[in-house]
What does this fold into?
Amino acid sequence: MKHLNSAQAKKRLVDGNQRFVDGTALHHEFHPHRHTKDIQDQAPFAIVLGCSDSRVPIETIFDQSFGDLFIIRIAGNIVALSQMGSVEFAISKFKTSLIVVLGHSNCGAISATIDECINKTNLSGSLHSITDRIKPSILPLINLNLPNHELMDKAVEVNIINSVKQLQSQSPIIKEAIDNNKLAVIGANYSLKSGAVQFLA
It folds into this structure.
């Protein structure tokens, strides 16, 4: 595959999501034996840090196939050290020019964090390792007295933006690639209802 710059990579994702929404997907069936070369010569054109939610099949919603996307999934699309390391690996190994932080509507990790903040629910230590990274996005919103659905929607968006900022600022490798105009980091929000992805930049 020809190397894509960040604008070309984003357009490919935008076009793929539009096909998915329109029901004209090119990759609605996956046949591994037809993609032997792609498997041997991995060259993903975008990195996607997305949520683990089973309702968000990332290759499917962007209508991409084997070898197209380097995908990292974790509840709440948070940035922890292992996720950062995975992103740095993909940049260094494949020279990928676009990172997308993909959140989605009705995110369970966001909901659990809101519940913890408001109702002081008791979570396991392992779950705290996730919610503690989401709380900085939630806490400033709690006192705004937003209706539940507005609080949820706003929290999802702020959490995406905060993850983008962390990737941009906390990794020397990512920062150098951005400064050299070799990489862009953007946020995106997937609607479970419509199937559409809204890019935040």
